[in-house]
Design brief:
This protein is an alpha/beta fold. The chain folds into 2 domains: 181 residues, Isopropylmalate Dehydrogenase (3-Layer(aba) Sandwich); 137 residues, Isopropylmalate Dehydrogenase, CATH 3.40.718. It is 38% helix and 17% strand. It has a 12-stranded mixed β-sheet, with helices on both faces. α8 packs across α9. The chain is elongated and about 60 Å long. The mean pLDDT is 94.
Amino acid sequence: MKFIGITMGDPAGIGCEITLKALKNDDYRKKSIIFGSEKIVNHFIKLLGINKEVNLIKDTLDFDEEKINVVNVVDIDLNDFEFGKVSKLCGDAAYKYVETAIKWALDGKIKAVVTAPLNKEALHLAGYNYDGHTEIFAQLTNTKKYAMMLWSEKLKVIHVSTHVSLREACNRVKKDRVYDTIVLANDTLKRMGIENPSIAVAGLNPHAGESGIFGNEEIEEISPAILKAREEGLDVKGPVAPDTVFLKAYKGEFDIVVAMYHDQGHIPMKLLAFDEGVNITVGLPIVRTSVDHGTAFGKAGKGTANESSMIEAIKAADYFD
């Protein structure tokens, strides 16, 4: 099972463009299947001057290494939407690309799914009320314990919570969830080839609570989770003050940081590796990696989008067995 599925993302965004730019690399093209819309793919092949034909497939047996292999999930063309504009049609298409790729992965036809960005507003207009890809994958794979990991060569971060308000994020810092996130980090890095991952757990409060002066979450929830993980043999340190833990990981002291909420983990990642960061949903029965940026509607359809994160997402998917 060597194939990687790439979902095209919102057709009005940059997903198709960055996918095709990444597949200019022969090694990536010879193992990748695009889940999208044939006519949009052909448009960008011409725009980008790619000297390859589309091969429409319905099964991996139809795969042709010399062509760009596409599952034509939704048959739409350029007359059906406008680049850079939110639309119900594009939200529906983006969801169906993902839904189909997940089915192929669950059926064992592809070893991983790489996702180009979708637009949450368009998704909701189409009637799919998810916060994003992570929640779609969790529901369609019936996964209860999962987390968002941001991966790059420079820094790796996993989140206790993601797309919730800051007030709600604080409420979600609970022993069981922190422990589960530590275990997910450990298991995922092992699958990616790190034999004994070194894990740092960030505090929630300034100075990691300063022994309860600035909050009790470290004492009551985070430390007990760390202790439980240590008792099971995991290499875990913390809680570490959140204003220093990411620098320590960046300098090589830790393999990954467990962040307590979305911005705590995303800000250092996007500062250090904006074009190189990869989003990995961990805990799923299948592998899912993604670019770590949005649909970039302002650049859509112009041929100027940067494909670096898509390349890194394909590389990350290939690390998994």
